[in-house]
Fold this protein.
Amino acid sequence: MNDDDLNQLIDAFTAETSEFLQSMETHLLAMESSDLEQRKAAVKEMFRAAHSIKGAGSMLGFQNVSAAAHTLEDCFVILRDRTDLSALEATTVSVLLQGVDTLKKISVESIHHSDVSTPDQRSNLEDLAQIHAQFEAKYGKPEPPPVPAASRSAAPETLKLIFEHELPPIFNRLETELSQASEADLAKSVTALNQVYYQLSGLAGMLQLPDFGKVAAPLRDLIDFPDLTLERLQSEGWAIAQNLQTARQQLLEGRAIELPQISPPPSDESPSETPPPISPSPPLPLFPTPPLPTPSPPLPNLQRPTIRVDLERLTELVNLVGELVINRTNLELQESELRGEVKRIRRSIVDLNQFGGQLREEYDRLSFADWRGGNSNAGLGKIAGSEIEFPAIANSKSSLTHAHFDILEMDRYTEFHSTAAEVIETAQAISQSATKLDLLAMKFERSTDQLRRITEQLRSRVMQLRVVSFSRAVDHLPRALRDMCLTYDKDVNLLLVGRDTKIDESLLDALRDPLIHLVRNAFDHGIEMPEVRQASGKPASGQIEIAARHQGGQTIITVADDGKGIDPEIIRRKVVNKGLATEEQAQEFSIAELYDFLFWPGFSTAEGVSDLSGRGVGLDVVRTNLRTVRGTVKVDSRLGKGTNFIIKLPLLLSITDALMVKTDRNKIAVPLDAVEEILHIKASEVHTAGNQPMLWWREEFIRLVRMQDLLEYSVLGPDGPSPDPLTQDHIPVLVLASSEGMLAVAVERLIGQQEIVVKPLPPPLSKPRGVLGSTILGDGKVVTILDVDDLVGQPSLANSSIAPVSGTTPHMAPSSSQSPQILVVDDSYTIRQLLSLMLTRARYRVVQAKDGLDALEKLQNGLDCSLAIVDIEMPRMDGFELLRSMRSTQRFAKIPVAMLTSRSGEKHRQMAMELGANKYFTKPYSEAQLLEAIPKLIKH
């Protein structure tokens, strides 16, 4: 086995062990509130999990893991056999949870240190041994159970479990190799069978079953036989496989293994003569069982084969599926255009056929007129009502030859007759081509329908490769909450809603820490003590609810509690006390701006520091982690009622239905799952409350606003803004639903429903308010997708009127002594703007300079900055020259400088560091890494 194969096995073992450990923890927590039968089933599952970890750890050489799992397995045996599960104590569950935690530590340590015994490992193993000793002391030692002769060293239940679950995959592999063996790959088959033998003999040795090892021994002799043929391998191999199956069945039935009478293999050496060739003999009946039939196909392998795929390749595959959907939409648009063109050709052909019919009638009329007019006009033709005459076709020889025929006996043809015949034939040919085009269009339509179905199936299958259940992100929370309840004497229930909601697996790591911090925050800051809750009329037991759902191309996760809520006045006082704003500025802050301070580093509303809160790191971690996956978080709280934290995460690939509308002559996509109802109302149905238009809908008034008033960004059409939709006689209205409530939105026109691919804005672009992302239509146009939650939840909507809503919220004027100022030096206007937007969102003040000389002039004119972010390659003065000038000037020498450049070579990096740069970043930069490094650079 090479290193790559071993690493893959270790990776699989790590993932499998993590799942088994989580399963044990989940079952232990569930046992506290389950009935007797459920507890018995849980103990059985935990025993199997510990046993699987033990076996896998032993096979891969992780002896510490195997020993620890074996100790925990013994604890589960005591729990199963010697305790009254109907009267399970909470302390028993707590001790076993500690055992699971210890096994988890041992597993991580063993994998990281290649199972080398360290002091920590020995300490953890001793902890597990103490837990086992506690169980032995509390529940007494068992009486030795009757052990069959076949299994003197292993408990019958253990043997049964092993032979029932561990052996079938090995037997399946043995039979598969025998059935698929060929002359060309005989050596590979022998190697595979050798591995099977070592697995069987190792299992027999571990369980101290020498008789079972003797049954497997002929397999060793067979694969070591010189000049082994395919016929012999298959015939004797199937006999050995049958013997092994029989031995397994005897052990499962509690009977001793009956050893087969094994004949020695025939020798190829002959003293005097070579025996004549013989045909392969059938399998020998080594057991007293019916004769073995001819080799049959192997039993189906119940374990599906799996492969490991790099995450980046899956991401590329998902992106290609999105492109496939976009191009399929383009194909559908072309198919629709083709059908339209075929219909237009059909109408033209009808007109052409009518014209051809008229020509045919005129042709007949002229022929009859020629016959009546005699030879005087035989050579001329004229269309009725027309001044155009057609000369007769010149053919003197023909005229002389047929001169004795009159006009009824021989047709006379003019140029008009020939032209009319050509037009009629052309019309018929075009009609036939149109019929073929119509058939092709029908086939095209059927093909696009089939492509649509295949694309949808492909999208569904590909998405299943990268998504996991939301439960993977929250299964550890019940344990954490239980421990906090026991430690701080609170009674809090955790309700998990939408555990089966699918999320991208790459989001799991980014979600775990934010969720645990939000739960801790709700437990400590939100949920009151039982006596306080009862005094305010609430139940003594608090509740935290975590819910996950999909909406409009994103995953929305809410963490809600029924606690005391957030008092904005406390936040306002804290802001002033910390010097983040003056008293006058603090009074101007809106509720949303005050809530935003909760996510600042070092900001906390707690009066003192405790194990749970007061350090101001919890919510800061939440926002920082979510930014790494382009997620957002916002707060909604009601004093005395509770608090909601709403997390929004973009889906890796979202294909959703959207309603296409038109406003300001721009197409906008509205996610269909956010549209509660589509209305067409009359202008007389619009009511007014002050300056706010209102709509009576389902027995209540809801706000009515124009779509263009909600959007901060728009592109005016060539003809200027569109008419105000509220001034039309008939107004198209969308009733939008979100977690923030209901809102009626008036649009210029409804276009129709369409399936779209949601494409989030790529970094470093920031997400605009109210914009979820964009999509590409079949004609190649890019259309904005609305974020309905953002639109409905805009603070400015509370006092919105018919006048356009301001696109920006009032900007907080930070205290000049507290908000650091950063100098951004780059010759690229786009880079300067992107950096400025990012830094402004992070509450820094920003000054821009277009090159090194411009930056130096600003510094010499008295600019006070806490950090300079400098590009290298710029006109007039490059970044190296600026850095050298700053370090040689006493006034600027202590200003931290971070280089941000596209030059990633070691030579440029070394030059920057020698000149005194504090940090070196390369483009494209990571927004999260840059924001994380800036506070450290400023404190430098």
Summary: DSSP finds 28 helices and 25 strands in the chain. The first strand starts at residue 380 and ends at 382. Residues 144-154, 262-303, 375-398, 798-817 have pLDDT under 50 and may be disordered. The CA atoms of residues 900 and 925 lie 8 Å apart.
